[in-house]
Structure formats: C-alpha cells, structure tokens
Amino acid sequence: MTPLQTYSALIDPIFGVGTTKFDITKDVTNTVIGAINNQTEFLDFKNNFTARLNRLKNIYSTHPTYLKEIITQVNEIASEKNWEGAFAELSAFDHLNQDILNHKTNIHTPIKPNETIDKSRTFALELGKAAANLDGFIEETPTYLDFKVFKDNVSEIFEKLYKELHQHFNRDDFRISAEYDLAISVDEIAPNIAALRNELITGIIPTNKTTYLKSSVVSNLNFRILWGRGVLAAERTHNPFRHAENYHQMVFKNADQFVKDNPSLMVYVIFPWYNGIVSSFSNSNIKLYRSLSRRVFCQYKHDSTLFKTFNSKFTGSQTIYQISNFLSGIIFLEDNTILSKEPNQTNVKSYVYLNPNAINSLNRSLVQEFLLGLHNSEYDDFENDNY
Q1: What is the Cα–Cα distance from 86 to 52, expressed in whole angstroms?
Q2: d(Cα 367, Cα 267) in Å, to the nearest integer?
C-alpha cells in the first residue's frame, strides 16, 4: 500500500465511503502521512489523531454542511504543501469544540467552518482583496476566528538551502548547520537567501574541507560544516522577548481578517513537526505568547505611525494602533498529539490573551466565559498592564 492508501483506509471508515478525494496511487507523503504509515513508531500519535477525527465526526454529525468543510481539511492532510494548515485547523476545531461536544458551555452549536464575509467588514477592502474569509464563526454570539500555523520558517529555509548546496557540489558527504539567534525574523533571511547561497558556494571549498563560515550577508549568522561521519555541533540562542519583538508584526499581515463590526480572534497552532523552537523550559513559551500579544495590543498605543507605512498596499488612513483595536484577542494552541497517551483528550493546551483596547471587546461576554472554560488554559486580559 502507498502511504496515501493507508491514510485513506483510516479516514473512510470514520467519515464514510467516498471521503477520500485525493489520488491514493500517488507516492506522496508528508510528516503526518509518514507517521500514520509507520508500522512501528508514532503509535501514540496515530491513536490521538484517529480519536480526534472521530470527535470531529461526532461534533459535526448533525451539521452536514459544516462536516463537509471539516472533511475538506481531512483530505488536505494528504497534501505535500497544505498539510500544516489543515492540521492546525483540525487541532483548533477539535479543542475549541470540546466543551460544546460535552455540553459544558452556554454555546451549543459547533463552530462553523469556512465563513466568507463582505470585504468591507474587515480591512480586506483597504488591502485590495476581493473578500474576507475566516476559518471559524461562533454563531450564537457572533465571533470570528482564523487559524494560523505558528511556524519556524527560518529552519525550513535553511534546510532547503542545504539541499541546494548538496546538489551544487554533487556530493552528500557533508552536513551544514547554521548558528543564529532562534528569534531572528524570517524577513532577515528570506530576502537574502540568494546572497547566502552564493556566499556558501564561494566560501565552502570541498578540497579544503571548510568547517566554518561567518556570514557577511546576515549579521550574527555562522555556518558549521562537518565532512564525513561524526557529530555536528552548532550553537543557537533563544530569547522569547526578542522573539516576540521580531514576530509580532506577523499578526498585522492578516489585517484583512480583523472584523470591524464583531469580535474576531487570531488562533495560532504550535506543533513540534513545524515548530521546534517554542519550548516550555523556564516558561519561555508563556513569555513569548504574552509578550507578542501585548505588543500587538499595547505597543502602538501612543504611536501615530500609519498602517500604510507597514503595508504599502493599504489605502486607509488608520494608524497601526487603530488597526490593532479591531482584533479582540489572540489564542495560542499547543498541540501535544505526538507524545500524549490520552487519546480521549484533545491533547491541546490553550493560552488566551484578550485585547484591553479592543473596539469589539470580549470582556464579560459568553465567548469570554467559553474561553475561560477551555481545558489546560492560561489567560490574560492585560487589564492592569495596558500602557
């Protein structure tokens, strides 16, 4: 059986014959599909993921149009490129619907997937987009959600660069590892990748077995090279507060999903198979999440910088702070399905941060109560930290 045939054999019995919409004959895989297809490892993950699919089927079974959208994401898990976003959506829908499934909340209707609204209701209009699409909608107390992958793009860029270098030198008897601050922004790396590639092609001399190269393209970036067998050691640092400083503006890249007339939440899913940086060591994760959220909500409070200076496509006259006020909150979801031995749980921990300056505030609302009731949850509304 191909890996996709194995995956098809998992999902069809859960959602019904004909669920599979991808070509099962293709020899295509990704991290999740590879784990599901592995016969000796990742058994906990397979049990947890299978239980998740069954929960989603149960929660949406009375809403067939909603279930159809869930099945679309189940199929996207088989994609080489789109599996990360699909996994994030399934993780979020599973966790956020848990209390609804168990009748432990005042919200009784499962979160509606895939809601498209008029562009004038978000900043999609000012950003020149045709419409605004959000991943989730709480109908009983109108609140919009959009789910994002909290991803380590820098490591992915470097891995691709290493493969290109192996192809260029036509040999695979060496390994490369970058030394850098893990809080570095992808915006410092991505625009310089061609220059970095040329720098490494020029600087690595196979006949001399080059072992170290200090980059002159990106500051504080070094490369260690190991030839043949052995252990390749590289030093990296991580500061959660610097990480928040470098990454908080990524939230504003989704201003087309900040709803003007109802509360809206951005939900970021952290999963080790696409982000190995975030760690609970010394509460580094909480420091990162809280600091990043506070920067989005409060940093620009006394700043008159126009949003168009951040995004030249923006045609509105609002400041960055004024735009930030249309985001009601940020939720971070840490998915632990890889290692957990409790398939009857969602295996997700939530970290909820509400915007104290939100125009569409969730304070003293049913949604706030709903979020406070999430299992394994940290919460902060910055009520006394808004300056």
Answers
A1: 13
A2: 14
Q: Where are the alpha helices (DSSP H) in 207-337?
A: 240-247, 284-298, 320-324
Per-residue b/e over 15-30, b at no fewer than 16 CB within 10 Å? beeebbeeebeeeebb
Alpha helices in 128-215 (DSSP H): 153-169, 186-189, 193-203
**Average of per-residue pLDDT values in the chain:** 96
Whether the pLDDT of residue 62 is over 90: the answer is yes
Inter-axis angle of helices 284-298 and 240-247, to 10 degrees? Answer: 40
Residue 385 has which token pair?
């930290």
CA–CA distance, 296 with 293 (Å, rounded to integer): 5
DSSP state of 360: S
pLDDT tens-digit profile of 63-94? 999 999 999 999 999 999 999 999 999 999 99
SS (H, E, C) 94-125: HHHCHHHHCCCCCCCCCCEEEEEECHHHCCCC
- Interatomic CA distance for residues 304 and 314, integer angstroms: 16
- Say if CB 259 and CB 122 are below 8 A apart: yes
Please indicate, yes or no, whether the overall pTM of this predicted structure exceeds 0.90. yes
What are the residue ranges of helices labelled H in 38-81?
Answer: 43-60, 64-76
